[in-house]
Amino acid sequence: MTSRLNPYLSFDGDARQALEFYEQVFGGDLALNTFGASGMPDPAYAEKIMHGMLETPSGFTLMGADTPPGMDHTPGSNFSVSLSGDDAAELRGYWEKLSAGGTVSVPLEKQMWGDVFGMCTDRFGIPWMVNISEPTG
């Protein structure tokens, strides 16, 4: 798998509706994972989207999720740029450069879904997400 760069949108509880709308607009395959399916015990979040990904026939990738409990949803700044793939060395290199002089909000480390993931805001105020998955095949 090559590394991928795409927008990641944050929603205030309506990620499912928004991502289904974008699926109607762009076509493609939509995969949705809920907080409940990932083991979050809070029933208020059980059906909220922890991660959604739309891959379109035109080659677009759009990801999104509902803002998790404890984090603020701020319209106008409810996006991040996502870098993902299985080339750990490449992605860690990007992480080191992007986070240098910026602010790390989630350290780049193994997460409950099994991937290595981190979030930072670079020195120019742009929010980034880096996800390193295990190589396939």
Q: Gist?
A:
This protein has helices at about 15-25, 90-100, and strands spanning about 5-10, 30-35, 50-55, 60-65, 80-85, 105-110, 115-120, 125-130. By secondary structure, it is α+β, with helices and mostly antiparallel strands. It has an 8-stranded mixed beta sheet with strand order 2-3-4-1-5-8-7-6, covered by helices on one side.
Give the integer mean of the pLDDT values: 90
Task: Tell me which oligomeric state these chains represent.
Answer: single chain
Total beta strand runs: 8
Low-confidence stretches: none
CATH T-level fold name of the largest domain: 2,3-Dihydroxybiphenyl 1,2-Dioxygenase, domain 1
* CATH architectural name of the largest domain: Roll
Instruction: Look at the structure and give the CATH class of the largest domain.
Output: Alpha Beta
Percent helix range: 10-25%
Placed side by side, the strands forming the largest sheet appear as 2-3-4-1-5-8-7-6
Strand fraction band? 35-45%
Number of DSSP helical runs:
2
| Alpha carbon gap, first and last residue | 10 Å
Number of domains: 2
The CATH superfamily name of the largest domain is 2,3-Dihydroxybiphenyl 1,2-Dioxygenase, domain 1
Alpha-beta content class: alpha+beta
Inertia-based shape: globular
Order of helices and strands: EHEEEEHEEE
Using only C-alpha atoms, the radius of gyration works out to 15 Å
